[in-house]
Design goal:
Two copies of one chain form a homodimer. The first copy, chain A, has helices at 16-29, 44-47, 60-64, 92-98, 107-113, 132-140, 152-171, 191-203, 217-221, 229-232, 237-252, and strands at residues 3-7, 34-38, 75-76, 82-85, 121-125, 143-149, 177-184. With 256 residues, the first copy, chain A, is an alpha/beta fold. Chain A starts with a strand and ends with a helix. At the A-B interface, helix 4, helix 7, helix 8 and helix 9 of A face helix 4, helix 7, helix 8 and helix 9 of B. The structure holds adenosine-5'-triphosphate (2 copies) and magnesium ion (2 copies).
Chain lengths: 256, 256
């Protein structure tokens, strides 16, 4: 049965999608069967893999509203053994439509349960909020990976996210664990980066990933070519950091 | 009567808060009476001005749910003639609680109407989503300023935001205008930055602000001192760009 991991942080632009796409591709390259679920109406995880779901396509929206199963929406990608469950702007409506539905927080968990045995890892790329989409992801997940940009505002939001994870552990998903905080866009020339790293390692001993992702322009160029870093510039520092992260989490999640 | 401007973009981390805080401070420094409303449960606009709303404080949440007026929540800041309407994580609940309320999209517009005559400019710092908080901002506003990071994913989300603005103009607020797209975190050494600038200027002639905000570490350091750039390092390139932006919009909005 797959390990389901939510990649979440309500702070915007911290590297959730870049982490989801590049970690998924790196794990798939090591022969794991990986599913990437795009929980964000912006659809960036899809476009980062070169896939754009047209307006009338069946997407995650239809799965959450009970109008389709995952089978009907799964898409292949350029990376063998990496599949995508796409989203588009239609998903914006789901937050409001789910409010009055029964068991609104467990919809994703139940539909993922039917396909989980086909994969080794399922990554959930979350939107920048703590609404019903992210709550669905935290309820379905075994673990949470928190990308944290080495900036002040990102650090400030961390305690609110940790409180929300505790609330979910107490009421919706008691098996949810914090898999780690991943430091992203680290710039060695910049004092603020070093301060944030020190502060996080101090406050969360043992919970910070050893791998630190450097700021690297090749990572931000790759999505404009619709490719994960591995297929755009595998030798770049940014991509190699995600390859190292894949090895680190494969040990932690006891992947084959 | 104040000009009300929503600073909005559903893409995360594009510089909405940095723009709101520094533009508000620069306009206030030129003797305009400015109100900055924090529409984001993360409360970054507040902390960027050195203000943290305690959990039990009266905030924008209470105003939107009709439990307080703006009078009760306005706070002074270190910048004379700049006031703040703060938020904290309590606001996360408003998105769900407002769904079933009457006239849920016009709550902010009605409560701002009672204090608009005390200010020359009211800036609304929006969260990274197109939910009810941002819809309230777009319904209350005279204009929208769109910060756009010079990156691929940010460019991709622009058409969805423009469509949403059109929908709001057609149903909730016909006077809403697009005041401009502000290019942020521009890095002259990086091809991608130049490509994004060219693409946006081509697609939206006459709608892109002349001022371009460079990537500048002093802008990201200032919030950790609870100060807008003007009070942290006024001579830095980033802060000077916001001073130039203030002059540009003051002409456009015919401020005294
Ligand atoms: N290590 C890195 N080096 C350079 N650029 C990066 C890096 N990681 C991410 N980026 C760029 O920074 C921007 C923000 O990253 P990304 O979109 O992955 O964040 P996010 O948390 O998914 O954003 P959102 O909150 O909107 O979902 C993107 O343009 C991305 O290309
Ligand atoms: N011109 C700039 N140069 C350097 N850093 C910047 C610049 N503008 C913003 N930043 C930094 O980039 C990060 C994102 O900016 P900011 O938080 O203002 O974006 P936002 O759109 O408000 O994010 P959110 O979507 O979470 O509300 C912050 O850490 C900020 O300090
Ligand atoms: Mg994302
Ligand atoms: Mg913000």
């Amino acid at each position: 049965r797959a390990r389901i991991v939510a990649v979440a942080n309500q702070k915007g632009g911290v590297g959730k999608t870049t982490t989801s796409v590049n970690l998924a591709a790196s794990l798939a390259a090591q022969k794991n069967r990986v599913l990437l679920v795009d929980m964000d109406p912006q659809g960036n995880a899809g476009s980062g893999l070169g896939f754009f779901a047209p307006a009338e396509a069946r997407t995650l929206y239809h799965v959450l509203l009970g109008q389709a199963g995952f089978d009907e929406i799964l898409q292949p990608t350029e990376v063998e053994s990496l599949q995508l469950a796409p989203s588009n702007t239609h998903l914006t409506g789901a937050e409001i439509e789910l409010v009055s539905e029964m068991a609104r927080e467990t919809r994703l968990k139940r539909s993922l349960g039917r396909i989980a045995d086909r994969f080794d890892v399922i990554l959930l790329d979350c939107p920048p909020s703590l609404g019903l989409l992210t709550l669905n992801a935290l309820t379905a997940a075994d673990g949470v990976l928190i990308p944290l940009q080495c900036e002040y505002y990102a650090l400030e939001g961390l305690s609110h996210l940790l409180k929300t994870i505790e609330l979910v552990q107490g009421s919706l998903n008691e098996r949810l664990t914090l898999d780690g905080v991943l430091l992203t866009m680290f710039d060695a020339r910049n004092n603020l980066s070093h301060q944030v790293v020190e502060e996080v390692r101090q406050h969360m001993p043992g919970k910070v990933c050893e791998t630190v992702i450097p700021r690297n322009v090749r990572l931000s160029e790759a999505p404009s070519h619709g490719k994960p870093g591995l297929l755009y510039d595998a030798s770049s520092r940014g991509v190699q950091a995600y390859v190292a992260l894949a090895a680190e989490v494969a040990r932690q999640w006891s992947l084959p």
